Structures
1.
Amino acid sequence: MDYDETHRLVQGNYLDAPPLASECHIIENAEGAGSDAEILHIAEIVRKLRKKGVDYQDIVILTRNTRDNEAYRKLLSAAELPVFVNNRSGYLDTLEIRTMISLLSIIDNPLQDDHLVGVMSCPCSTFRKMTSLKSGHVRTRITCMRRC
């Protein structure tokens, strides 16, 4: 199959939108800062954003794990930056995230019935009725998919 320009993936499906700017920061010569070099660099970036007029409420720092959140809170507070840390765990257990993980699993391996049932049972599914299985027998039938 030949692909041309009309088949390419377009970011956000906004054909006339300019590309989003991205940055890559490499921290070198962080002597003396140790493992806190990344956090101190982020504090400097936040200060620069504030000088450009960005509100604090528009700045979010996503960490790799929740173990480091306390270090971020301490160092950003010491840098006199307002900090709110959300240590809430379980955000991957929300219905939306579980549904998307199931959908990606189906794309990866369409034979995973448990993930298929998870996607079919989500509220945004186009299936009106779920099939329930008992002892390998179908008790009710799946009704047709609604037209979108």
2.
Amino acid sequence: MRTVSLPKRCVAALSAHKVTQAQERTVAGNKWRHLPQQPSGLIFTTATGRATAPRGPNRMLTVLCRNAEIRRIRVHDLRHTCASLLLAQGVDARTIMETLGHSTITMTLDTYARVMHTALRAAADAWTTPSGWTRRTATTETR
């Protein structure tokens, strides 16, 4: 088990889900069965407290994407989106590694090297010299 820092919005959504799940537990009564190795219960469960099917979250995400009329993505794609957004915001690779639970910084750097290159280029393009001139990349200068 590991601790993960979450944005306040995610914490609020999980807190609301916990309230809903407590109501479901009350409705299920004696049918609610948590796993012995999970005495405090799971976050996402069936209506009787059991673990969802492994493909369940992807199925739910497919329905959400269809309803929102956006392209289908998998739950695992959300990890890549998270890493890409963090990189674009200038978060350091070590923090991203810990957020994603990668065992080594090399894994993070190898996986997201292309995204990091794009973020570095954007940072270079945005850099302004003390005299106020905007630095241009080699590709920009050759036009």
3.
Amino acid sequence: MLYSVARDKKLAVISLGVGLFFQSQIANLTVLVNFGALISFLLLHIFVINHYIIRGKSSNYFKHLIMPIIGFVVIAYVLYGMDIAALKDKSHCVLDKP
């Protein structure tokens, strides 16, 4: 989907629109981008295990099972820490303001 949006030259317009919408709320934009990136990396680790261990029947368990599990746990811990930090500092959150 991202490829087709970029191919049609709409990615720049979408990026500009999001940037202008969050212009006065840089903290919210940063949290949103970080959250999306971390969720993407969590999914990547799951897909690596699925591709190599479940579908590919790989016998290299260290490379294709242990390392993705360790990466998943580290990223999940960072995401959990980010959620706690966001809960503690609600002063910049758009959703909390009337």
4.
Amino acid sequence: MGERARPMTLQERRDYANGFDEPADMLAKPERQASAEKIRKIADLRRQAKGISC
């Protein structure tokens, strides 16, 4: 994802943050079976987070 030309609005930030709720719940409750798509999405988010934190 490229850099944004403007900062996110409050609603955009909330929408973005809400996107992490479902995968985080799945990680917290491993007895719930995640689909292959969700597993890939979580792996992608982890890779992106590692890239950002450097």
